[in-house]
């Protein structure tokens, strides 16, 4: 397999191997049963995805590992992310070893702290352990998910090293401008989960529907394109072959300034997932 040339990449800095690039669109397997990963992830690779996002808590690292181990898959051609769960913040090395065993990998591209779980108050210790794994060459880059500005500032204050990336809930209904501004100021890549805010009804919003019709694309394609044009990494998820392909076909059109202005006006601060300040 060769990297799909139409997919742009973003550079990962900070706690990363120099020159490491992440494909701007990824295939996520949250809520995908392990038995369904082979077909879904396999189809995504056929279409052109070269970025897979899993986590220990998803219960499907084995399935991802099965696909990565296929003879027709070039491991070096696929960017692989997994995550450490909240109950392993004081046990990062062992959790990492277990994930790598399930994935069947020697070196991981990106390892993330899944949530700050601030009431436990050990995410700085977890971050220090993550940095040790990166220094040992066992993972090319380390980052976080769902960290707020105070969490990120504390990492900087206490360790001197910021994450390469912060994977956060992000959509036109939840634009997180303050957090994205902190990312931009400090060279942290923004990665979006729940980018389509399906549970909040974003794809039926009249503004989204109208702009999608204007560009002759689906509402989902329009919103995914919005993420790409904001220089976010965006994660898509589906087990339906046609939808997997549809979500990838976002590089043949561009949004205009008035489109971006209209979408900027949709921000409601609406979360479809947990609040990072209280979860975990």
Task: Report what the structure shows.
This protein has 280 residues and is α/β, with parallel strands linked by helices. It has one domain (9-264): TIM Barrel (Alpha-Beta Barrel). It has 10 helices and 10 strands. It has an 8-stranded parallel β-barrel with strand order 3-4-5-6-7-8-9-10, surrounded by 5 helices. Strands 1-2 form a two-stranded antiparallel ribbon. β5, α3 (92-103) and β6 (108-113) form a beta-alpha-beta unit. The longest helix has 14 residues, at 34-47. The N and C termini lie far apart (39 Å). The mean pLDDT is 96.
Summed up, the helix count is 10
Helix content: 25-40%
Segments where pLDDT lies below 50 for 5+ residues?
none
Strand order of the largest sheet: 3-4-5-6-7-8-9-10
End-to-end span in angstroms?
Answer: 39 Å
Average pLDDT figure: 96
Q: CATH class, anyone?
A: Alpha Beta
Secondary structural class: alpha/beta
User: CATH superfamily membership, which one?
Assistant: NADP-dependent oxidoreductase domain
Largest sheet: 8 strands, parallel, barrel
- Report the CATH topology name: TIM Barrel
CATH architecture: Alpha-Beta Barrel
**Percent of residues in beta strands:** 15-25%
Task: Count structural domains.
Answer: 1
């Amino acid at each position: 397999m060769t990297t799909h040339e139409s997919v742009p990449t973003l550079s990962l800095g900070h706690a990363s191997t120099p020159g490491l690039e992440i494909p701007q669109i990824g295939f996520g397997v949250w809520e995908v049963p392990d038995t369904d990963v082979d077909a879904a992830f396999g189809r995504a690779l056929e279409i052109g995805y070269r970025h897979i996002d899993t986590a220990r808590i998803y219960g499907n690292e084995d399935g991802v590992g099965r696909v990565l181990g296929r003879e027709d898959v070039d491991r070096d051609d696929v960017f692989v992310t997994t995550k450490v769960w909240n109950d392993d913040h004081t046990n990062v090395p062992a959790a990492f070893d277990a994930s790598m065993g399930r994935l069947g990998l020697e070196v991981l591209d990106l390892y993330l702290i899944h949530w700050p779980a601030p009431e436990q108050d050990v995410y700085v210790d977890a971050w220090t352990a993550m940095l040790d794994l990166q220094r040992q060459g066992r993972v090319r880059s380390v980052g976080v998910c769902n960290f707020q500005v105070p969490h990120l500032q504390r990492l900087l204050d206490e360790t001197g090293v910021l994450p390469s990336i912060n994977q956060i809930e992000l959509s036109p209904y939840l634009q997180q401008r303050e957090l994205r501004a902190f990312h931009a100021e400090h060279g942290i890549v923004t990665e979006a989960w729940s980018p389509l805010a399906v549970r909040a009804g974003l794809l039926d919003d009249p503004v989204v529907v109208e702009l999608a019709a204007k560009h002759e694309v689906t509402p989902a394609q329009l919103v995914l394109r919005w993420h790409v044009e904001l220089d976010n990494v965006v994660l898509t998820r589906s087990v339906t072959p046609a939808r997997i392909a549809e979500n990838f076909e976002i590089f043949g059109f561009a949004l205009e300034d008035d489109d971006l202005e209209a979408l900027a006006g949709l921000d409601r601060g609406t979360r479809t997932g947990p609040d990072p300040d209280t979860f975990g």
